[in-house]
Amino acid sequence: MAKKDHLIYIYENGKLVVFNTLSGVLNQYLINLRISSAKMFYDNDYLYILGGDVNKEFSVESSQNLYKVDLNQLRKTKINKSVVLGNNLVEN
């Protein structure tokens, strides 16, 4: 989990969730990164995803990789799911 101002970023196993604490909107994006239990940091409009576990067919391996996600690209990325807390699912 990482945060910047009123936005909270949560990543797990190919899903990046952005929660806007002002509007109550929770958006989920699918990203092509299959890592679980990673650490995440925010700096200068980038999320950095560090380490974590990679699930193989019959095993789990630790990752020592660092991935950089440009948050400006989220504006061009299709929202997979969107929820307004306290309301029903928002259609895209």
Question: What's the short story on this structure?
Answer:
Helix content is about 0%, strand content about 50%. The chain has about 90 residues and is mainly beta.
Task: Outline the structure in words.
This protein is mainly β. The chain has one domain. Helix content is 0%, strand content 50%. The chain has strands at 2-4, 7-12, 15-20, 25-30, 39-43, 46-50, 53-55, 60-62, 66-70, 81-84. The strands form 3 sheets. A 5-stranded antiparallel beta sheet has the order 1-2-3-4-10, with no helix packed on it. It has a 3-stranded antiparallel beta sheet with strand order 5-6-9, with no helix packed on it. It has a two-stranded antiparallel sheet with strand order 7-8. The mean pLDDT is 89.
- Strand content is over 45%
Number of domains: 1
Largest sheet features: 5 strands, antiparallel
Q: What class would the helix/strand composition place it in?
A: mainly beta
* Beta-strand segment tally: 10
Strand order of the largest sheet: 1-2-3-4-10
Low-confidence stretches: none
What is the average per-residue confidence, as pLDDT, rounded to a whole number?
A: 89
Number of helices: 0
CA distance, first residue to last residue: 25 Å
Q: What descriptive keywords fit this protein?
A:
92 residues; mainly beta; five-stranded antiparallel beta sheet; 10 strands; 0% helix
